[in-house]
From TrEMBL:
Keywords on record: Heme, Iron, Metal-binding, Signal
Keyword Cell membrane tagged: no
Residue ranges of every copy of the Cytochrome c domain listed in the record: 36-113
Annotated protein name in UniProt: Nitrite reductase
Lineage: Bacteria, Pseudomonadati, Pseudomonadota, Gammaproteobacteria, Alteromonadales
InterPro entries recorded: Cyt_c-like_dom, Cyt_c-like_dom_sf, Cyt_cd1_C_sf, Haem_d1_sf, Host-pathogen_enzymatic-act
Length: 542
């Protein structure tokens, strides 16, 4: 066995690992890479692969990529999988990586995984920055625009968030954030606690663990008011109902951090490492989804690998009360039912939708669905037969599963499948609006461009697909993530320029929600993915 030491300049750009380096061991029969190729492959793995397969490559939504598994497949087979994807929900990467990069990545995943360092509360606090002092926050909007119909848009690979005026369709500003922002959330109306100026402040979390605070009342040049860093890799964030705290969850290190919502100063860190539902200790127990319970003074923290839901009471941080609710692996995205009581979340590897009763703080139900459910921000609507229902797309199959979610008014239909809608390809996001007759689903996970670039729309009453919309036909681009405007009259769909990720050649296509006809295209965006309408999100319009 030999020990190889590498510097960490490349991965430091992505996850902030100390420049002092670390040691990794490679077995004698493992493939090898030059130092430069190793660093590049390590960075690409972190940016594109770790989310599904894990930092330590033990697998989650994606399969285990530890050497004992990858060495069996061999170099040629691994290169094909990376290049062309799989029918099980993995994207093709032949349009993003060169053949040499694919070959190096295939070699890298046959080598022993490097282990990143931990992060202390003191280290987090050292990253906290103030750009606008709270005493200088304006008492009213300074720009004269309808900020409640703003869209906050992730420009993923640009490391930016765009603010777009939903009325004029003009880009208000581009805000520097961290690498690959995954989610942006703002203050929301709450049944128990009440924040000031609901919808005004928004918080980003990226795949470098960086948190940004955005003030939509500022002039465009001053909307970024504070930032900090709470992990090397992270995925979700939420704001307490009273607007006092922000919580974010780490992929690495495995922890969640509660911050002061005004200053972003980290206040408390809690490890999520522990035992899964089978009694196995999990070191890389990543925080997948974090939401604020609309009716309770608590956060909902989903720990991906353990299958444990944590309900965290934020009313007393010094004596933090955490209720652990066992469910199923691997927890991912979730959303609340219209009442705000029940949290519905995908356990993708178990092919289940998990339902948690946040009032009683217990597991309510687990619904069997198809391969790798992924609802994103989800969708709730009313069905003629089943009453209130919710739905999810799937990473592993072209299908929308719909279940009843009203145990009070429709107990016979609650937490049971109502119907399914077959789509042309596996998808990531599903959306609707209370004023709309239709449900929209993307097909991002299908490897064929024609399907990947199209979204499908089905009728709430007939359950039939009424239209397949080809959003773009440009090579290297994909259609994803639908969002309605404030009154539900428009649907916005992102065109993600995956191949040309360094230039503002992405766009958002706006459709009439009733006629399903294209209205306009908002250009000048770099890799737009998720987008969030201020009014809808602040008022829980799912």
């Amino acid at each position: 066995m030999k020990t190889i030491k590498y510097g960490l300049s490349a991965i430091s750009l992505a996850i902030g690992i100390a420049a002092s380096g670390f040691s990794i061991s490679t077995l004698a029969n493992e493939p090898t890479l030059s130092k430069a190729d190793y660093e590049q492959a390590k960075l690409q793995y972190f940016q594109r692969c770790a989310g599904c397969h894990g930092t330590l490559r033990k697998g989650a939504t994606g399969k285990s990529l530890e050497p004992e598994e990858t060495l069996k497949k061999g170099q040629t087979r691994l290169e094909k999988i990376i290049a062309y994807g799989t029918e099980g929900g993995m994207n093709n990467f032949d349009d993003l990586f060169t053949k040499e990069e694919i070959a190096n990545l295939a070699t890298f995943i046959q080598m022993t995984p490097p282990v990143p360092p931990e992060m202390s509360l003191e280290q987090m606090r050292s990253h906290t920055k103030e750009y606008v002092a709270p005493k200088d926050y304006p008492s009213k909007p300074l720009h004269g625009l309808n900020w409640e119909n703003f869209f906050v848009v992730i420009e993923r690979d640009a490391g930016k968030a765009a603010i777009i005026d939903g009325d004029t369709k003009k880009i208000v500003t581009h805000i520097d954030t961290g690498y690959a922002v995954h989610v942006i959330k703002g203050t929301e109306h709450h049944k128990v606690d009440h924040a000031k100026d609901v919808g005004r402040f928004w918080y980003t979390i990226g795949r470098d663990g960086k948190v940004n605070k955005i003030d939509l009342w500022q002039t465009p040049d001053k909307m970024l008011v504070a930032e900090t860093k709470m992990a090397y890799d992270a995925r979700d964030i939420a704001v307490s109902g009273d607007g006092k705290y922000v919580i974010a969850g780490g992929y690495w290190p495995a922890h969640f951090v509660i911050m002061d919502a005004v200053t972003l100063n980290p206040l408390k860190v809690v490890s999520t490492r522990g035992y899964n539902t089978k009694g196995e200790f999990i070191n890389e127990a990543r925080v997948a989804a974090i939401y604020t319970a609309p009716n309770e003074s608590s956060f909902i923290v989903a720990v991906k690998e353990t299958g444990q839901m944590l309900q965290v009471d934020y009313s007393d941080l010094d004596n933090l009360t955490i209720t652990t609710i066992a469910s199923a692996e691997f927890l991912h995205d979730g959303f609340f039912d219209p009442s705000g009581r029940y949290f519905q979340i995908a356990a993708n590897a178990s092919n289940k939708m998990v339902v948690v009763d946040t009032k009683e703080r217990k597991l309510e139900a687990m619904i069997d669905v198809e391969s790798l459910p992924h609802p994103g921000p989800g969708a709730n609507w009313v069905d003629k037969k089943c009453g209130p229902v919710a739905g999810t797309t799937h990473l592993g199959v072209g299908l929308v599963s719909v279940w009843g979610n009203d145990p009070i008014g429709h107990p016979d239909q609650a937490w049971k499948l109502c119907y399914e809608v077959e789509t042309d390809g596996a998808g990531v996001f599903i959306r609707t609006h209370e004023t709309s007759q239709y449900v929209w689903a993307d097909q991002l996970k299908h490897p064929e461009p024609e399907i990947q670039q199209s979204v499908q729309v089905f009728d709430k009453n007939t359950h039939e697909i009424v239209k397949t919309i080809r959003v773009t036909e440009e090579e290297g681009k994909a259609a994803l993530h639908m969002e309605f405007n404030d009154d539900g009259s428009e649907v916005w769909v992102s065109v993600w320029n995956r191949k040309d990720a360094r230039n503002p050649t992405g766009e958002i296509v706006v459709y009439d929600a009733k006629t399903l006809k294209e209205k306009t295209r908002i250009k000048g965006l770099t890799t737009p993915t998720g987008k969030f309408n201020v009014f809808n999100r602040a008022n829980h319009k799912t």
